[in-house]
Amino acid sequence: MNIRSTRFALLGPLAAFLLVTRDASALTTDEFFRICEMGEASCSENPLLNAYVGGALDLIASLDEGTDYLQPVYCTDPRTLFKIPAIVEYMEQNRHEYAKRNAMILLIRYLEENGRC
């Protein structure tokens, strides 16, 4: 088994554990980065974190395009703004300020700061 398949072999059970044992509460920033620290790749390259952030971006974009539910959070074209590695790096740089809060608050802060509304 090569290193890459070993990494995915470890992430699969971890993802299943998180999905099965957690209640419906969101990850705190500390929990988000604890997942990162378990892997060998940088946080911005961690596939589990990328999927988590990507899912949040998909939800925000869906609400923005399909409903009047949200006030504008971003005005920049999502194709240029929704760069997951840049978002995760931003979250990592600001993680201590939001350690015990929902990790996706940092995603919203990123969009507010970089979305040019």
Brief rundown of the structure:
With 117 residues, the chain is mainly α. It has helices at residues 3-21, 29-38, 47-66, 78-81, 84-93, 104-114.
List the helices and strands and how they pair.
Layout: H1 3-21, H2 29-38, H3 47-66, H4 78-81, H5 84-93, H6 104-114
Helix pairs in contact: 3-5
Low-confidence stretches: 1-10
- Regarding quaternary structure, what we see is single chain
Structural class: mainly alpha
Counted beta strands: 0
Q: Describe the global form.
A: globular
Mean pLDDT: 83
Terminal Cα span:
48 Å
Largest sheet: none
User: Can you count the helices?
Assistant: 6
Radius of gyration: 15 Å
Protein traits:
single chain, 117 residues, mainly alpha, disordered N terminus
Note down, in words, how this protein is organized.
The chain is 63% helix and 0% strand. α3 (47-66) crosses α5. The chain is globular and about 40 Å long. Mean pLDDT is 83; it is low at 1-10. It is built from 6 helices and no strands. The longest helix is centred in the middle third of the chain and has 20 residues, at 47-66. It is mainly alpha-helical and 117 residues long.
